[in-house]
Amino acid sequence: MLCYVFVNAINRKACNENGVTVPGLALTSAWAEACASSSASKIWVPAGTYQMTAVDVRGPCKAPIEIQIDGTIKAPANPGDVGSTRWFKISYVSSVTLSGSGVLDGQGAAAWKQNQCSKNFNCKLLGMNLVLSYVNNSIIKGITSKDSKHFHVNVLGCNNLTFDGFKVSAPGNSANTDGIHIGRSDVVNVLNTNIATGDDCISLGDGCTHVTIQNVQCGPGHGISIGSLGKYKEEEPVDRITVMGCTLKGTTNGIRIKTWPNEPGQITVTNVRFENITMENVQNPIIIDQEYCPWNQCTKQNPSKIRISDVIIKNIRGTSATKEGLSLMCSHGVPCQNVQISDVDLKFKGAPVISKCDNIKPSISKAPACTYA
Ligand SMILES: *[C@@H]1O[C@H](CO)[C@@H](O)[C@H](O)[C@H]1NC(C)=O
Ligand SMILES: *[C@@H]1O[C@H](CO)[C@@H](O)[C@H](O)[C@H]1NC(C)=O
Ligand SMILES: *[C@@H]1O[C@H](CO)[C@@H](O)[C@H](O)[C@H]1NC(C)=O
């Protein structure tokens, strides 16, 4: 087993099988050597604080690689010094484990002030803490993503990826710091993960299939969201998404599906299950919004073409910060089909919340009663 101690981007040492450090290579070169090895490798970042410029490592590699991060790795504070939309990127590889008690610190405070993304759809994207693209059969466990400049984690084109005991931490007012964004991936599990951030805790883009989100704590943040969807013509369907045993605390939204009106996308979103979820003082606990149109960047002239079906909303309890606890506003072009709601018990100031539903077939008969808008 190879063993590398990464000291910093300039000075670095590697250790041998006995843990003895020898002069060596930085993370990038350690990866190159580990990747070429025909037996399993481990790259170790020991306790300590390190500065790291952007790193982009890729496979294919010959054998599994574990990167154990026990130290705090800091990104350049100046967004211009990260140089692109990702800070630490791993791609085109299988069997990688990211582990350890360490921290990826994006040092985002300066970037959040420059970031115009909450006002402008075509804003400049800043360095994301961790980008996993086309990564298979891999695990991220234990480490913390802190103060990312933009999304903390972006998952694209992955197969069989598990986050377990992962942590995301950033202030509630940090713009566009989605916790984990997942797109075009099959079999992604986010388990036992604590997310406090300034945007969606978890957001699922098009092409997500077999995604399980379990025992996730979210807050502050904007909740757990499917979408937004429909903006682009070439999107892929969303199928088999389960969110269970999660707690949302003081978030702006709880569980949400959002699609754009008047846009070309026409995929299906099907087999979605939200079950056993606790809300604590959540502003909009349960939402389907098929007229999602932030910052007035679209018109509502034509309905959304995204077809939502087979949605189970079951055992959702706790408190809402507004009196409207449930808002299921489906597209009048393609009504939602087969939405099942049971055991929703949400209170606003001690009284049951009110609900709003539209364009659901067949209409929902079970409690809480829906007043059709
Ligand atoms: C990941 O899995 C996909 C689908 O099975 C496959 O096409 C791709 O080559 C795999 N990538 C790697 C790096 O193993
Ligand atoms: C998924 O990835 C994990 C971790 O590498 C591995 O143990 C497991 O066998 C993989 N599952 C499949 C179906 O390949
Ligand atoms: C929800 O909780 C109930 C009661 O603890 C349990 O029986 C059920 O399996 C849970 N559902 C999911 C999807 O985890």
Automatic annotation (TrEMBL):
Pfam families given in the database record: Glyco_hydro_28
InterPro entries, per the entry: Glyco_hydro_28, PbH1, Pectin_lyas_fold, Pectin_lyase_fold/virulence
Catalytic residue positions: H222
Principal location listed in the UniProt entry: secreted
One MF term in the entry's GO annotations: polygalacturonase activity
Keywords: Cell wall, Cell wall biogenesis/degradation, Glycosidase, Hydrolase, Secreted
Subcellular location: Secreted, Cell wall
Biological process terms in GO annotation: carbohydrate metabolic process; cell wall organization
PANTHER family, A to Z: PTHR31375
Family stated for the protein in its record: Belongs to the glycosyl hydrolase 28 family.
Protein name in UniProt: Polygalacturonase
